[in-house]
Amino acid sequence: MEKIKMTTPLVEMDGDEMTRILWKQIKDELILPFVELKTEYYDLGLVHREETKGQVTIDAANANKKYGVAVKCATITPNAQRVKEYNLSQMWKSPNGTIRAILDGTVFRSPIMVKGISPVVKTWKEPITIARHAFGDVYKATEYRVPGPGKAELVYTGEDGTCFRETVYDFECPGVLQGQFNKDSSIRSFARSCFQYALDTRQDLWFSTKDTISKQYDHTFKDIFQEIFEAEYQARFEAAGITYFYTLIDDAVARVIRSKGGFIWACKNYDGDVMSDMVSTAFGSLAMMTSVLVSPEGNYEYEAAHGTVTRHYYKYLKGEETSTNPVATLFAWSGALRKRGELDGLSALGVYADALESATIETIESGVMTGDLCAMWEGDVPAQKVSSLEFLRAIRTRLEQKLG
Ligand code: NAP
Ligand code: MG
Q1: Does residue 211 have its Cβ closer than 6 Å to ligand 1?
Q2: Global pTM?
Q3: Is 152 strand, coil or helix?
Q4: Among 26, 68, 221, 336, which is least packed by CB within 10 angstroms?
């Protein structure tokens, strides 16, 4: 079998712990035998982030901007315990946060569905993708406790001296106070990423906020989306046969639960944080959830939604066989290769990515799966728990049949 050739390199961002082990196994078993893989490699493992004082993450993000498509392994976001464990010179920020800030992108999370593992919500037949605006609001708020009676005000002083002053509350007792912000530029990028991704994946786009209560703040989100939709995307949406739909967040929640799925739900930062955990749990498993960061210029970074699966890694280090689910990481590779093929006009890469994904799904549907899925299995055939490597080899056998 001749290997598929690539023209532009994929930006490869390696990571940490169990997912780093899976990363190599996926490449060795399922990619390198079939594709003459061209990547520009960045090691985002914590050891190398420390060695480069964080520079490697910035370089990787800039390479993502240069080439357009990246695939990323899960990485450790250090906390105090990791600083000790890895003898770090500082508590490096989350690589995902750094990359997101450089690309100015929005994260889209979608479940991978298989027959035999059904969503908790029985009406859901197709994936629901959540787009979370990952900037501002309560995540960048200024807040403090109010010690006692007194007046709380919201003050803005313009560079030209303009001043707005509004009373928030006349406190008669102790309480709490918070100031939030967002920027038109960030909301615009969010809107463009959402419209772009809806076109890319030919899915309807829903957007929800609480604009009836928040008549300036949330209403600005609604207005900016509408303005950009009409000016830049409406005609393309009509041509693609998809729709843009705005509704109040409470109405959206009710509609999502009654829906069949098969759309993108764009959410403000907090709503996206909460709803993505609810939707992913209802679909089954974090190990079956993919994630793609899309920038308004059309740069893509594919990854799994889960972390480095530390608990399994410590078992692996002790020499125990682990049954960690590689599906989301594998779909990050297939998603990135498919997109690379699309941008470079290499249809063979797309065919390969489709075959890799269907081989994976069929392997699970045949009853061969990792431990996490066995626990949820409701299929007709009995579930057979295998190790990560056995699972990847079973996929390989199917993939060879499909491509050979
Ligand atoms: P996690 O790695 O997602 O794992 C949490 C638990 O979920 C695991 O212990 C495991 O449950 C289950 N799980 C997750 N992925 C699985 C898979 N592929 N196969 C089987 N089971 C899976 O989250 P965490 O333990 O909270 O975080 C570990 C590290 O990951 C942290 O250092 C964190 O900073 C980092 N992290 C990185 C990213 C990212 O790079 N995008 C995202 C989140 C967290 P059982 O133990 O019950 O089997
Ligand atoms: Mg959350």
Answers
A1: no
A2: 0.91
A3: strand
A4: 68
